[in-house]
């Protein structure tokens, strides 16, 4: 008997790559191989198959690989296999208007992420580079750094929860930490240890710990005791091998209750806890076949304190699901 | 551009090349879209698929450089296919004709696309170069098993055209049988 309460959001017509929460509302934005971006209001009490409240059809000319709400929640950014990053503004009545397009990457853009203050944006691409953009307001963005140190495809970029420190995860099996000094962005640390593509990373709420997941099926936890010191390096403090039976595509570290969610090519969503006293990663819950027989591409914990036990997932079955995991998170 | 391997070894192919299995699957393909395959399966019990059926789907893929099939060149062989029915896993190992074959990734991509199009969605397919038969074995394998790279490749219209050419004869031969 499946005890996992879940609601399904249907509307995409191809693999859903990502679903991300709004910073202050129970809303999600998702993106897909169907080239669209969709916005959903989540109602856990209502029946399945809720439809989107807004759809940006043909948001990109190819697959939309990543999306994000800005920290103020007023803008959506989308990253596409067409090499572009687009900024969308809500103009009312379920309509979004493209207010800026950031061009520069040579090919597929794989991720886009806002810094916590909302003043910086990072993008990464198959062209091996990471770009940092500054938001100047009114849809103006200026590129302030083009970072070329990865030797392969960069899969994801994630900002530190408070400091202006960026982490990138790559097909070259490493992660890199990027910082700014005297207007120059530089790589301050390279994290090696995974034996294949690092698909996803996330910080804990304090920003002292970083979790990474990989094609090598393992989860690793990294610690940096003094993130504000540019010379302070991360060290790997815990590894859980064979956490999934196939590639792990996404990880989310809850900022409200501290549980770690992962998902991957084995169709499962798994929940782990990390004990910093013993440096042990412990499995606490599993949702097998979360999207039926399909890969699960992304998991994200809801950032709202009162709804922190909600987990959004998206899969190759074209669906977004929201799981109520109160019992697990207590 | 010159051919990588101007004179590949050609192997004889048994007469009864196209089995019942592949025909029945193609018939099913034409009845169902990709996603509804799974539903069909749950309704009428999960159908067992064996290595022979998987081989039937890829044996007639055209080599990108020669008017010969992967079977004729021993790039694809039945003994290099394993099916774990219980866990819905399939492993296909292929053998490039020469260790510096620049077509290895393309051949692997053709095999992946063919199986994506023909097999029920529940199967997780791993495609790898036979160990020790290619100088860039590791990077070819990594690319072929990265779903994001495969998805991006399938949006490249030139590449899709080349893949479809390699697959075209396969469909024709099986359908004509």
What descriptors fit this protein?
heterodimer; A: 330 residues; mainly beta; Methylamine Dehydrogenase, Chain H; four-stranded antiparallel beta sheet; B: 177 residues; mainly alpha; GMP Synthetase, Chain A, domain 3; three-stranded mixed beta sheet; 7 helices; globular; Probable cytosolic iron-sulfur protein assembly protein 1 (chain A); repeat (chain A); WD40/YVTN_repeat-like_dom_sf (chain A)
What portion of residues of chain B is helical?
A: 40-55%
> What is the string of SSEs of chain A from the N terminus onward?
EEEEEEEEEEEEEEEEEEEEEEEEEEEEH
Total strands of chain A: the figure is 28
Strand content of chain A: over 45%
CATH-defined superfamily of chain B? Fe-S cluster assembly (FSCA)
Regions with little confidence, pLDDT below 50 for 5+ residues of chain B: 17-44
| Class from helix and strand fractions of chain A | mainly beta
Count of alpha/pi helices of chain B: 7
Q: Could you say how many structural domains of chain A there are in total?
A: 1
Taken together, the total number of domains of chain B comes to 1
Shape of chain A: globular
Mean pLDDT of chain A: 95
Q: CATH architecture of chain B, please?
A: 2-Layer Sandwich
List the helices and strands and how they pair.
The complex is a heterodimer of chains A (330) and B (177).
Chain A: E1 5-10, E2 16-21, E3 27-32, E4 37-41, E5 54-56, E6 64-69, E7 75-80, E8 85-92, E9 95-102, E10 109-114, E11 120-125, E12 130-137, E13 140-147, E14 154-159, E15 166-170, E16 175-181, E17 184-191, E18 198-203, E19 209-214, E20 219-223, E21 235-240, E22 248-253, E23 260-264, E24 269-275, E25 280-287, E26 296-301, E27 310-315, E28 319-324, H1 326-329
Antiparallel strand pairs in A: 1-28, 2-3, 3-4, 4-5, 6-7, 7-8, 8-9, 10-11, 11-12, 12-13, 14-15, 15-16, 16-17, 18-19, 19-20, 20-21, 22-23, 23-24, 24-25, 26-27, 27-28
Chain B: H1 20-31, H2 36-43, H3 51-58, E1 81-84, E2 89-94, H4 104-118, E3 124-129, H5 137-144, H6 147-153, H7 157-176
Parallel strand pairs in B: 2-3
Antiparallel strand pairs in B: 1-2
